[in-house]
Design a protein that fits this description.
With about 450 residues, the protein is α+β, with helices and mostly antiparallel strands. About 60% of the residues lie in helices and about 10% in strands. The protein has two domains: about 375 residues, Outer membrane efflux proteins (OEP); about 70 residues. The protein has ten helices and six strands, in the order βααβααββααααββαα.
């Protein structure tokens, strides 16, 4: 499987990934389409094979489609649709049949002398209860959808970080392999100089030690590469872990986008939308509690058959509950308190996101500056010093220990460049999953 290089803007298409992997929007209404309900009814826990060409956005899309934490959404969606449909139904009528004068003595004994009442009762809802009940069910469905969006964004963030780790681990192996090649070339050079009597045997041994140390680091790095690959592909249920990377992490951009332009994306963060949905749900349940204060009417009527007199008449009645003990004020007070709580939590969510963004942005700026410093200053200088040291060593103007120290310094700076790029990409993922905006 090929993993293509990271671009400077790590997740420029998070919005595309999330929208393309979303479920049909018509499911937010009662019932949804028959085709959509059939599609959801067959949803199961699935997995996918990793494609030969894997980009960051493809990895995120695969994770969203097959991650176990998101697999229950179709079931939750069906349950929410059923609750909405149930809320729109009228109360069922009630049929009752009773017999008067069924047990008695003399002329009022037995079925032939009884009076049969057949009554049909229908509750008439008042105060807009059915609409309030439907709105409450719809608001609960919206909260469920917002919770799903929060889980999905977390999957995208984790997958993005795992993707960067996988790419960085592959690049680290390539980096160590090239360093091992240089160490072996150094060993050949030192050995030749030793044969010519220009360096001591200890210099050869020191060069051999560097080769052995590098071989040990490569073995460790290869195991880390396999583990990083497994962690990534496990996001969509693929047990394979062999990844072939031809390019590594991209360099950070010259200039970052402004902090103010990024902060604008916080208003559409799923955490804020979830808190807003909970406010709407609390208000819907408050309206339902207020509607429940209005008493329903029960209308009943039907034929009345007097078997003893062989006569038939009609019976009509009206039933109104009396608000004596439970006046529904407690339920309204409860829903009012929950509504105030939801509004306070919305304000808290916004403040928490702003804090998270400020910290993430500060980390991103630091990582960007560090990466730019390594690229602009440290890499060119260390490369020039190593080249100069190699030339000086060949002509005998530098000792073997000094040359090996210069080589080690060059390798350390190259390692810092890989670490700096990885840290920048990780920080960029965290900022972009907060704002859903390119850097």
């Amino acid at each position: 499987m090929k993993v293509f290089p990271m671009s400077c803007c790590v997740l420029p298409l998070i919005g595309v990934v999330t929208s393309s992997c979303s479920f049909p929007s018509n499911l937010s209404t009662a019932g949804g389409s028959k085709a959509a309900r059939t599609e959801l009814s067959t949803a199961t826990l699935t997995s996918a094979s990793t494609p030969k060409v894997l980009s960051l956005n493809t990895a995120c899309a695969l994770a969203v489609s097959h991650h176990p934490s998101l697999a229950t959404y179709p079931m939750d969606r069906r349950a929410a649709d059923a609750r909405i449909l149930k809320a729109t139904r009228l109360p069922n009528p009630q049929l009752s049949i009773d017999a008067e004068d069924f047990f008695g003595t003399g002329g009022v004994s037995g079925l032939s002398s009884s009076v049969i009442n057949t009554l049909l009762t229908q509750v008439i809802e008042r105060g807009g209860k059915r609409q309030a009940r439907t709105d409450a069910a719809l608001s609960k469905s919206a909260v469920m959808t917002a919770e799903y969006e929060m889980r999905r964004l977390k999957v995208i963030r984790v997958t993005g970080e795992l993707y960067i780790d996988a790419v960085a681990s592959h690049e680290n192996v390539r980096f160590l392999e090239s360093a091992l090649g240089r160490a072996r070339e150094t060993l050949k050079l030192v050995t030749a100089l030793n044969d010519a009597g220009r360096v001591t045997l200890s210099a050869v041994q020191q060069a051999q030690l560097e080769v052995q140390k590098m071989e040990l680091e490569i073995n460790t790095a290869r195991k880390a590469r396999e583990r990083a690959s497994q962690a990534l592909t496990a996001q969509w249920g693929d047990s394979r872990s062999t990844l072939v990377v031809h390019n590594g992490l991209g360099a950070p951009p010259e200039i970052l986008a402004s902090k103010a332009s990024q902060m604008g994306g916080l208003v559409r963060h799923p955490k804020v939308l979830h808190a807003q949905a909970e406010v709407a749900q609390a208000e819907a349940y408050l309206k339902l509690a207020q509607a429940n204060r209005v008493s329903n009417l029960s209308v009943f009527g039907g034929p009345r058959r007097d078997n003893g007199g062989d006569e038939t008449s009609s019976l009509l009645g009206l039933s109104i509950p009396l608000r004596v003990f439970d006046k529904k004020k407690d339920a309204i007070a409860e829903m009012t308190a929950l509504s105030d709580k939801a509004k306070a939590e919305l304000a808290g969510s916004r403040r928490e996101l702003e804090t998270q963004f400020s910290l993430a942005w500060s980390d991103l700026v630091s990582a960007h500056q560090a990466a730019r410093k390594v690229k602009k200053d440290l890499l060119p200088i260390s490369g020039a010093l190593f080249k100069s040291a190699e030339e000086s060593f060949r002509v005998g103007e530098m000792t073997s220990l000094e040359f090996l120290a210069a080589q080690q310094q060059f390798e350390d700076i190259r390692g810092k460049w890989l670490t700096a790029r990885r840290e920048y990409q990780i920080r960029a993922v965290r900022v972009q999953t907060l704002t859903n905006r390119s850097l």
